[in-house]
Amino acid sequence: MTSKNSNHPHPVKLLTEVELEIMNVIWDSNPCTVREVHEALSQKRTVAYTSVATIMKILEQKDIVASEKQDKAHVFQPKLARTTYETMSLGHLAKEVFRGDSSMMVARLLDDSELNDEELKAIRKILDRKLRGT
Questions:
Q1: What's the fold here for domain 1-97?
Q2: pLDDT tens track for 7-24
Q3: 61, CA 20 to 30 Å: which among 39, 51, 81, 121?
Q4: pTM score, two decimals?
Q5: What is the largest CA-CA distance in the chain?
Q6: Cis bond before residue 31 (omega within 30° of 0)
């Protein structure tokens, strides 16, 4: 089973809140079983094992994860890379919420977030690198 870590072969709709919560566990634990995802989510809130299994099956049907039977368990891994989903989500946010004005999106983040000095320095470094074209 291979993970596609660049572009996903098909356009992907934004994930629901629960799908994204599960995908974050899958991305962090890659590969993992339903039980491992359930255990990780259960540390934050009560969630039924069957609900986790159902959502993971839906993600597989949407071609976002792949599974392979190993021993008695199905082992899942992402077919959609986290970075690909982040890029897609930001593009959607910029287009739909900020009407295509990415600078307004960045301004809102900077104005409304409580960024610490380290985060601001990291952002400045990224902007400086972009301005230099590297």
A1: Arc Repressor Mutant, subunit A (1.10.10)
A2: 555 567 899 999 999 999
A3: 39
A4: 0.82
A5: 53
A6: yes
